[in-house]
């Protein structure tokens, strides 16, 4: 590798951002992905890594409210931004969010590996589309792979939240 | 599955990025990262320097031009392309193509410029750009600014006309033909996968319902997007009836030279190209005659 080109950029940086509403920071090599910083530097292991190339959706988190693949972002790219992970869904006393509660009631998880990605995807989706129909829910979740459930209970859980919002 | 070491710079001006790229010809430009990050994670790409252009606000504009066309910044995300009112009004083809890319989380980060420069032969936006007669604006520190027609931009698999030190900064779309209908149709094995093949059509009809202008581009059937000039010529002046559509499909099947791969045989891709050409042309024709959303 050309030393001269290395000198044109940083090889390490201090990243400061907001994580689940609180200030967070880590000193990381610039090649570290957002997913690895969350898990390895900050101990937030709720975000799971499956394929590490954007296909499986397990590592989905929210950056400035939008669902993104944390394996396809560098940690340094969240400087100054707002990151939300599955650890930020439940209330501080442990009360599940309505979406988490619906997943629990509908048995929308078995092994649980894909669940954080589904939750963060569905949470962002429901914010942008408060009254989706089943087809829209299936399209929204199509970027997340689940090998256990057959998807039906996951779709039902998301629709349940949408319905209860409508009636509530 | 971790990137090899590199240095990282994220200038907040285009000038800053172009200066870095002039000094580091082996550097890679990082836009939305939805194609480059997998390549880095799998170590298929090992650039010494990444120049992240994501902080450059001037690359994110969507401008409705006075001539009835659009000027799109290279950094516009697929998600914005799919939903932007000006894009949906003037070039709904681009909005439809963008909405077919990957999944919502990919569309939230992936960019127009990134897709064009990455130039995956199955990608939607290169074919849409070719059908739209788009002009791509390339800039470099030492070479200034030049413009390349989309149909000359794509050279072969993952290879474009972008020279070392250059950045694709904007995409200019001319005004669409008056009253044109547009449609993008594709077939993928699973939702969000790269398409096995796709077709982008732009159709304008005269008062009698005959084709005044038809444009057709295909993806997934060769190393680059294919503009189906023979099919366009076959349709000129004809009504879009079954015979005309079948003649266009036959011209498409003869023009494309797909290859076998893990996902489909060449013969199946050739067949699919004809089927998708018919679907896209028919739907574009319906929209041109006021039968659809435009």
Concise structural overview:
The complex is a heterodimer of chains A (168) and B (294). Chain A is an alpha+beta fold and 168 residues long.
Walk me through the topology.
The complex is a heterodimer of chains A (168) and B (294).
Chain A: H1 3-6, E1 12-19, E2 22-29, H2 34-41, E3 60-63, E4 66-69, E5 82-84, H3 98-105, H4 115-128, H5 134-140, H6 152-167
Parallel strand pairs in A: 1-5
Antiparallel strand pairs in A: 1-2, 3-4, 3-5
Helix pairs in contact in A: 3-6
Chain B: E1 7-9, H1 14-23, E2 28-30, H2 36-41, E3 49-52, E4 62-64, E5 70-73, H3 78-83, H4 85-90, H5 92-99, H6 104-107, H7 112-118, H8 124-131, E6 135-140, E7 144-149, H9 150-153, E8 154-156, E9 159-160, E10 167-173, E11 181-187, E12 197-205, E13 211-219, E14 226-227, H10 229-235, H11 242-255, H12 266-288
Parallel strand pairs in B: 1-3, 2-3
Antiparallel strand pairs in B: 4-5, 5-10, 6-7, 6-10, 8-9, 11-12, 12-13, 13-14
Assign the CATH class of the largest domain in chain A.
Alpha Beta
Query: At CATH's second level, what is the architecture of the largest domain in chain B?
Result: 2-Layer Sandwich
Instruction: Name the chain pair with the biggest interface and residue counts per chain.
Output: A-B, 39 and 40 residues
Helix content of chain B: 25-40%
Structural class estimated from helices and strands of chain A: alpha+beta
Strand content of chain B: 15-25%
Fraction of residues in β-strands of chain A: 15-25%
Which residues of chain A sit in consecutive blocks of at least 5 with pLDDT less than 50? none
Order of adjacent strands in the largest pleated sheet of chain A: 2-1-5-3-4
Low-confidence stretches of chain B: none
Query: Could you state the oligomeric state of the chains shown?
Result: heterodimer
How large is the count of helical segments of chain B? 12
Number of helices of chain A: 6
**What is the CATH class of the largest domain in chain B?**
Alpha Beta
CATH topology of the largest domain in chain B: Uridine Diphospho-n-acetylenolpyruvylglucosamine Reductase, domain 3
What is the tally of beta strands of chain B? 14
